[in-house]
């Protein structure tokens, strides 16, 4: 009943915002959502137009906090029929209301500050959405059914890393059991250290990484540091690089008991030593995305699914089934964040990556030496 009523009047409210009646409407909304204390309501202090809609600032009655608002975010969105962001700032609640839809956008190389940021796309308000693997989000699962835009998201994440980061800071290991069909365009790039195209190669690579994890923890122990951040701060001239393993369709890998065990072991222990996993699947089944995967890879990029059940398997709630596909998704990192990924065709990616090809990578290779001197440049240097 509540949902129906608020849904039907929601559209109009956005226009009332700036017409003088707005506070009465907000008060009704807060009342319906239980966002008041002892008959005291959040007080509107300021309203501002923004590029994408408007932003309101409220002071709160005693006993009401940001968490109360976050819990009611969905109800407020339904009421307004708009997406919103809620922020706490200096004892005030800021509610940013977006009047524009997420738009499809073309890939553009985006520099980020973190050492291993994955650029996912844009959220409402044109804000960049990234996952900082070095800061609390060590491993990521990307899941969505065929046509959801999984390949495109992966392509733009990897391309952005190659274009904007330095080879001495990051190494990539790609596992593509479709015989290289998905990640083939990256195999000649200098940042790509290993490229596994079948189960045997994948298993060998995972073993090697497991040894590297042990080597790093021994190094930390000897030098009395707890993680890669502390180690790199202490040994500025002997920094360890960050390494990311991308696995396309990890369901194929999970059939191999040995590989599955190493993958889970890496997920559970590699986080502090700078080795990260990004695994993807287009088969959302409870057998594939099971408890072990959930426990070890809590950050999820969820793309369109055909059914509510599949959405619940991926993000543990409904929502993915309503997405429009083509890179429209939700990032689950605690709460859900809606996004649109950047569009990047294989042809354009190949074009952008050409300057990063290196001779020794032209054949499928496996290097034993994990570190070493490399010719190093980033995208911005190349385009100068
Ligand atoms: N961010 C995006 N913006 C615009 N179009 C997109 C975007 N992502 C994907 N698409 C389009 O959606 C279609 C499916 O994309 P993609 O191949 O990445 O999906 P997929 O989930 O990997 O599916 P499949 O496994 O069948 O290849 C493609 O035509 C692609 O061009």
Automatic annotation (TrEMBL):
Binding site for ATP: 144-151
Alphabetic keyword roster: ATP-binding, Nucleotide-binding
FtsK domain location: 126-312
Xref: PROSITE patterns: FTSK, SIGMA54_INTERACT_1
InterPro entries: AAA+_ATPase (IPR003593), FtsK/SpoIIIE/SftA (IPR050206), FtsK_dom (IPR002543), P-loop_NTPase (IPR027417), Sigma_54_int_dom_ATP-bd_1 (IPR025662)
Keyword Nucleotide-binding carried by entry: yes
GO terms under cellular component: membrane
GO MF term list: ATP binding; DNA binding
Pfam family of the protein (one): FtsK_SpoIIIE
Xref: PANTHER family: DNA TRANSLOCASE FTSK, SPORULATION PROTEIN RELATED
Entry protein name: S-DNA-T family DNA segregation ATPase FtsK/SpoIIIE
Organism annotation: Anaerosolibacter carboniphilus
Lineage of producing organism: Bacteria, Bacillati, Bacillota, Clostridia, Peptostreptococcales
């Amino acid at each position: 009943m509540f949902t129906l009523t608020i849904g039907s009047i929601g559209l109009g409210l956005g226009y009332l915002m700036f017409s003088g009646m707005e506070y009465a409407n907000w008060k009704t909304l807060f009342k319906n959502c239980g966002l008041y204390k002892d008959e005291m309501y959040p007080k509107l202090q300021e309203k501002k137009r923004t590029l994408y809609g408007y932003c309101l600032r409220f002071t709160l009655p005693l006993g009401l906090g940001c968490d109360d608002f976050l819990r009611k975010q969905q109800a407020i969105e339904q009421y307004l029929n708009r997406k919103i962001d809620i922020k706490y700032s200096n004892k005030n609640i800021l509610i940013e209301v977006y009047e524009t839809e997420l738009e499809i956008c073309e890939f553009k190389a985006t520099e980020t500050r973190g050492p291993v940021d994955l650029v996912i796309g844009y959220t409402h308000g044109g804000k960049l959405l990234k996952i900082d693997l070095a800061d609390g989000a060590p491993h990521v699962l990307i899941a969505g059914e065929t046509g959801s835009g999984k390949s495109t998201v992966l392509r733009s994440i990897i391309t952005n890393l190659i274009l904007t980061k330095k080879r001495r800071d990051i190494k990539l290991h790609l596992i593509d059991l479709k015989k290289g069909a998905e990640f083939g365009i990256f195999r000649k790039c200098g940042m790509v250290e290993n490229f596994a195209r079948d189960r045997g190669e994948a298993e060998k690579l995972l073993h090697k990484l497991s040894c590297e994890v042990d080597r790093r923890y021994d190094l930390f122990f000897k030098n009395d540091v707890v993680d890669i951040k502390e180690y790199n701060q202490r040994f500025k001239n002997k920094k360890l690089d960050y390494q990311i393993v991308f696995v396309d369709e990890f369901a194929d890998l999970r059939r191999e008991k040995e590989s599955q065990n190493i993958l889970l072991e890496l997920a559970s222990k590699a986080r502090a030593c700078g080795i990260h996993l990004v695994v993807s699947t287009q088969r959302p089944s409870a057998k594939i995305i099971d408890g072990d995967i959930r426990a070890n890879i809590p950050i999820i990029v969820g793309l369109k699914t055909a059914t509510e059940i599949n959405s619940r398997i991926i993000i543990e709630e409904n929502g993915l089934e309503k997405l429009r596909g083509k890179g429209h998704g939700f990032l689950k990192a605690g709460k859900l964040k809606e996004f649109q990924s950047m569009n990047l065709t294989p042809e354009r990616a190949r074009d952008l990556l050409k300057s990063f090809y290196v001779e020794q990578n032209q054949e499928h290779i496996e290097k034993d030496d994990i570190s070493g001197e490399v010719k190093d440049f980033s995208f911005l240097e190349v385009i100068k």
